[in-house]
From TrEMBL:
Signal peptide: 1-20
Lineage: Bacteria, Pseudomonadati, Pseudomonadota, Alphaproteobacteria, Hyphomicrobiales
Organism: Aquamicrobium soli
Protein name per Swiss-Prot or TrEMBL: Chitooligosaccharide deacetylase
Domain NodB homology stretches: 40-230
Keyword Signal assigned: yes
Family: Belongs to the polysaccharide deacetylase family.
Role this protein plays: Is involved in generating a small heat-stable compound (Nod), an acylated oligomer of N-acetylglucosamine, that stimulates mitosis in various plant protoplasts.
Length: 250
C-alpha cells in the first residue's frame, strides 16, 4: 500500500533493503544553531504524507504548547480539513510547510527510490513543488518557505531548481520513527537521544502505527530534560548539499 510512501528512511531500518544511490542523488542533513548547554534546543518536524492525523502526537504538542514544523502534502490536506484548521488556529505552535502535491521524490530523471517512482523530469519536479505550495495556500495557510520531498532523496539538479523557486530544502539530522515503521520503544529511544541543534523527522499521519506512541513519549522526555522546541523558520539553519545556501542572482 502507498501508506508505505512515508518511507523517508524506512529502508535503512529494514535489513537487506539498502538503496543503491547514484552519486548525484543525495539525502541532505539539516541542523539548527545550538542553544548551548544551559538551553539546548531542537526542531520537531513531522511529515503528513497522506492518510489521517495521529492525535497521540498532535495532542501532546497542543496540550504542552510545543512548537513544531509540519510538512503537508496536497493529498493529506484533502482528507484532514479539521486537523489542518486546528493547526492553522495556533500559528504560535505550528509552522506549515510543503511536502509536495502527490508525494513523489523530487528527482528530475526516471528512477525509483524504495519502489516509488520519482518525478522523472524538471517539469514534474516543478509541478510537485508548486502543487504542494499551492495546496497549502488554497487551504488557508501561509506561503511555504521550506520544501521536503518524498523519501528525502533529491537529485542535485532538483535541489538547485527548488532553491531557485524560492524554497529551502529541509533535510534532517535525526530520523525519529523510521518512516513511522519503528516500534514505539525504538522510536522513543531515538528521539529522546536528540542533541542540541538536531532537526528531528517523524510522521504525524499514521495513527495506527505503534511508532506514534513512542514519538509522543519522547517529546515529553525531552521537555523534562529542559530542551526548548523551536520551528525551522525561527532560528538559523544550515543544510548540506546547497539546500539552505543563498541562491545566486541570475
Amino acid at each position: 500500500m502507498r501508506l508505505l510512501c512515508c518511507l523517508l528512511v524506512a529502508a535503512t531500518v529494514q535489513a537487506g533493503t539498502a538503496f543503491a544511490r547514484p552519486a548525484d542523488i543525495v539525502e541532505p542533513t539539516l541542523h539548527i544553531a545550538a542553544g548551548g548547554a544551559a538551553a539546548p534546543r531542537v526542531v520537531l518536524t513531522f511529515d503528513a504524507c497522506m492518510g489521517d492525523v495521529d492525535r497521540r502526537i498532535l495532542s501532546v504538542l497542543v496540550e504542552n504548547r510545543i512548537p513544531a514544523t509540519i510538512f503537508v502534502t496536497s493529498r493529506w490536506l484533502k482528507r484532514n480539513h479539521a486537523a489542518f484548521a486546528e493547526m492553522l488556529a495556533q500559528p504560535d505552535l505550528f509552522e506549515i510547510e510543503n511536502h509536495g502535491a502527490k508525494h513523489i521524490p523530487a528527482i528530475d530523471r526516471p528512477m525509483k527510490v524504495y519502489g516509488i517512482a520519482a518525478a522523472g523530469s524538471a517539469a514534474a519536479v516543478d509541478a510537485e513543488v508548486e502543487g504542494g505550495a499551492g495546496a497549502v495556500r488554497d487551504a488557508g495557510g501561509d506561503n511555504p518557505r521550506w520544501f521536503r520531498g518524498s523519501t528525502a532523496r533529491y537529485s542535485r539538479s532538483a535541489i538547485e531548481r527548488i532553491r531557485r523557486m524560492g524554497f529551502r530544502v529541509a533535510g534532517y539530522s535525526l530520523n525519529g520513527d523510521g518512516g513511522s515503521l519503528l516500534g514505539s520503544k525504538v522510536a522513543e529511544k531515538r528521539i529522546a537521544s536528540a542533541r542540541d541543534g538536531d532537526v528531528v523527522i517523524a510522521h504525524i499521519n499514521q495513527p495506527r502505527h505503534s511508532a506514534g506512541e513512542g514519538v509522543a513519549r519522547a517529546i515529553m522526555e525531552l521537555k523534562a530534560r529542559g530542551f526548548a522546541f523551536v520551528r525551522l523558520s525561527d532560528v538559523p539553519a544550515n543544510g548540506s548539499d546547497g539546500t539552505t545556501t543563498p541562491v545566486p542572482s541570475s
